[in-house]
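User: For my dataset I need records formatted as: sequence, then structure tokens, nothing else. Please produce one.
Assistant:
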Amino acid sequence: MKLNDRQFKDELTKTWFIVGLVVGGLMLAVVPLFIFFGKQIAYGGNQCAFLTLTHLYCPGCGGTRSFYWLLRGHIVRSFAMNPFVPYFFADYFIFMINSLLVKTTKKLGFEGFPVTATVYVGLGILLGSWVIRNVVYLIWGITCI
């Protein structure tokens, strides 16, 4: 892969690209574990400490199960467990593919990828689903985890 002279429009995008490469490397180590031991990891472990103490869901509750179902191609089930996980992976892959296109081609890819906006959308999804999940649980007793 030959890098060209194209640069990202801001330093933040370059930083997120480097973080994305590190995350991608970590994913290469985690995905095989989930392929072979995913069900035990997702459904056989300890319950969330926040849930145990407060009897309310934390923003990350269901994240492991969401990742498990996403790896198996069950996007709706993954979304139901924790909508942040499928959003994160979709955003991650779009960002990384775009960034690699910017760095390796002369014309493909968008140099001004809206990194900050996608981070805020992700935080909104994470916090919004946390609030909605707890309100639905407290009022109607309905849970999807």
